[in-house]
């Protein structure tokens, strides 16, 4: 490690020490709350406590043995999967169309697509609730899918747009000059080149829907109650470690998914 800079503009590792400390503190701030919930989920007590006085799988059994919790989980999956599919298709098509245009109209359309990411979620939830009240979509799976698709579209658009930014359009034009239709050229030439970006957008869309709670509080109820909405109600009404057990399972699923995605992305990079 250099103790002195070789040139006037060179920054040594010692001079960057403060940056390493700040990054480390930020990572601890983000990760520790997620990890604390894991030991709390193994508590044998009636309430959340850290550290747990006695270890038990009681609350995992309570979750897996509860028809209400499992139904809420099934509703979340039934909403998240269609949301992922619809948002990925629409978002990819929109990103492709906007990528090929650079005029003011394209800029305005891109802003409209990203708007759900900028507007406070509570305002969107209230607006969706009143619109659904007029058309009878409150408390329905279809209404949740439509609302979550709107929220997931910006993530797909940005992810696919970043992939298209590094894509060589000459490959697409070459396939068109050889007689391929626009759709066939996109599916056979362009899509394979940006598939990692599309997969990233799909993952973001799924997570956005599965984790969403604010809109679900307004438009889901009864048998169509999502898992996150039921978790929120459980914390509000009674604080027991069942929510910690569910959160631990979700954290584990996210970690496994990230590892699988990283390995898939690395394999794709090595192939190229």
Automatic annotation (TrEMBL):
Keywords: Cell inner membrane, Cell membrane, Membrane, Transmembrane, Transmembrane helix, Transport. GO terms for biological process: transmembrane transport. Gene3D superfamilies: MetI-like. It is found in: Cell inner membrane; Cell membrane. InterPro entries: MetI-like, MetI-like_sf. One of its GO terms (cellular component) is plasma membrane. The chain crosses the membrane at residues 17-42, 79-99, 111-133, 145-167, 242-264. It is a multi-pass membrane protein. Its main location: membrane. It holds the Pfam family BPD_transp_1. CDD domains: TM_PBP2. The keyword Transmembrane applies. Residues 73-264 form the ABC transmembrane type-1 domain. Belongs to the binding-protein-dependent transport system permease family. PANTHER family: INNER MEMBRANE ABC TRANSPORTER PERMEASE PROTEIN YDCV. This is ABC transporter permease.
């Amino acid at each position: 490690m250099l103790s002195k800079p070789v040139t006037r503009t060179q920054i040594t590792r010692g001079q960057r020490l403060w940056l390493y400390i700040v990054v480390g503190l930020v990572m601890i701030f983000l990760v520790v709350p997620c990890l604390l919930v894991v030991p709390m989920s193994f508590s044998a007590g009636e309430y959340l406590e850290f550290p747990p006085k006695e270890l038990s799988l009681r609350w995992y059994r309570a979750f897996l043995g509860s028809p209400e919790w499992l139904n809420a989980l099934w509703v979340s999956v039934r909403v998240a999967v269609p949301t992922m599919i619809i948002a990925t298709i629409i978002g990819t098509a929109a990103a492709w169309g906007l990528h090929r245009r650079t005029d003011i109209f394209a800029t305005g359309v891109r802003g409209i697509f990203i708007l759900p990411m900028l507007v406070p979620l509570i305002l969107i939830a209230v607006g969706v609730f009143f619109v659904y009240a007029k058309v009878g979509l409150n408390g329905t799976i279809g209404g949740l899918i439509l609302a979550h698709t709107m929220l997931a579209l910006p993530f797909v658009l940005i992810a696919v747009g970043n992939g298209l930014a590094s894509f060589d359009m000459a490959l697409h034009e070459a396939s068109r000059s050889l007689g391929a239709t626009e759709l066939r050229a996109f599916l056979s030439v362009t899509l394979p080149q940006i598939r990692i970006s599309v997969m990233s957008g799909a993952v973001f869309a799924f997570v956005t829907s599965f984790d969403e709670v604010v809109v679900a509080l307004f438009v889901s109820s009864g048998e169509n109650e999502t898992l996150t909405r039921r978790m929120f109600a459980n914390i509000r009404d009674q604080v027991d470690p069942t929510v910690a057990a569910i959160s631990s399972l979700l954290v584990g699923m996210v970690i496994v998914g990230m590892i699988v995605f990283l390995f898939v992305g690395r394999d794709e990079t090595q192939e190229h």
